[in-house]
Amino acid sequence: MKALRIKLGGEDRVVFRCPACESCHNIVPGRWRWNGDVDSPTFSPSVRVTWGNTKSASCCHFFVTNGRVKFCADSTHALAGQEVDLPDLTSDEVAFWSEGRLRPHGGGA
Ligand SMILES: [Zn+2]
Description:
The protein has one helix and eight strands. About 5% of the residues lie in helices and about 40% in strands. A hairpin with a 2-residue loop joins strand 1 (about 5-10) and strand 2. The chain has one domain (about 5-100). With about 110 residues, it is mainly β. It has one helix at about 90-100; strands spanning about 5-10, 10-20, 25, 35, 45-50, 60-65, 70, 85. The strands form two sheets. The chain has a five-stranded antiparallel sheet, with no helix packed on it. A three-stranded antiparallel sheet has the order 1-2-3, with helices on one face. The site of zinc ion has 6 residues, from loops.
């Protein structure tokens, strides 16, 4: 399972593991189109996650198509410009996210 539909803070989300950030990102179904497939997900349009302050902001920007993730060149990590398989969520991650708790430091967004 590469994607998991959960409730996060009372809101529907779809979480998935990012192989570049070694953490999970999520989308809000309804704001993104999702094909509903947890093993071979497609999200559109692209997902762009930023964090940090404006002077040293980090960015992870990618397309997810049929379970493959294609990172855009403006990503600030080592996989920028590359396309790789979206990894499966671990059973620990599925258990964690299924609880619907927010991470204490706001990560995973
Ligand atoms: Zn990422």
